[in-house]
Design goal:
235 residues, alpha/beta, TIM Barrel, 43% helix, globular
Length: 235
């Protein structure tokens, strides 16, 4: 795909930030780090009051007894550089969709129904990812993406309130969370996968562009109203 894109663009090489060959991962990480720091400096120079952070995709990495070293190696390789960078930011953005379980001999398959990404549907993964992100970065968390890729929307309708309840428990335990953004409002064009993945609260007719709320949209609305009621009661 990248070779075809390079040819179409008339260049020797072409990269997409979410499809990076392994041999240039370090170069991209260094370049993105410089870009983030320069962008933050430019924003703060103009508007010092504007919160600035970085957002990363982070799974809830768990370990069975004896699997801690493998879990920690995964965290160090994928997340910890950016969580360290975020120590100097105003918040860390967390995008969460999955949980993984590490045993002494490698990854262990979690039990349960699979989502469209091939991993187990796990409402508790968001709270675990948020907890770890804050523990390492030391800054508040903004949930910038969270959802479930699934064709059966009844599962999404169950998943959303369960995940938000677990997140609420994590907040009550002391993890500062600035906000939550669900991914996504409408079934969308999902990167290299096109229109096949279904993550939206609304179904979209690709011919007429008519948008129809799914049961999960109502479930999310109820969860938001309940959260607002609790905030009003404690304010």
């Amino acid at each position: 795909m990248l070779q075809a894109a390079a040819q179409a663009a008339g260049t020797d090489s072409y990269f997409a930030s979410n499809v990076i060959p392994s041999n240039v991962q370090d170069d991209f990480q260094q370049a993105f780090t410089v870009a983030h720091c320069m962008a933050k400096s430019a924003i703060k120079a103009r508007r010092a009051d504007v919160p600035v952070g970085i957002s990363i995709a982070i799974a809830d990495e768990r370990a069975l007894p004896g699997g801690e070293a493998r879990r920690d190696a995964r965290r160090a390789a994928v997340y910890d550089h950016w969580l360290d960078v975020a120590r100097e930011d105003d918040f860390i953005g967390v995008q969460n969709y999955e949980a993984f379980l590490h045993g002494p001999d490698g990854e262990v398959q979690l039990e349960g129904q699979l989502n469209g990404m091939g991993s187990v549907i796990d409402p508790g993964s968001l709270a675990g990812a948020v907890r770890y992100a804050h523990e390492v970065s030391g800054v508040p968390v903004l949930v910038t993406e969270h959802g479930i890729q699934i064709d059966d929307d009844s599962l999404r309708a169950q998943f959303i309130p369960q995940a938000l309840a677990a997140l609420e428990q994590q907040i009550a335990a002391g993890t500062p969370v600035l906000g939550y953004c669900h991914w996504t409002l409408m079934d969308n064009f999902e990167w290299i996968f096109g229109y096949r993945p279904k993550l939206g609260l609304l179904e979209v007719d690709r011919q007429t562009l008519e948008r129809t709320p799914k049961p999960s949209a109502m479930a999310y609305a109820r969860a938001v109203r309940q959260a607002q009621a609790k905030m009003a009661a404690t304010s």
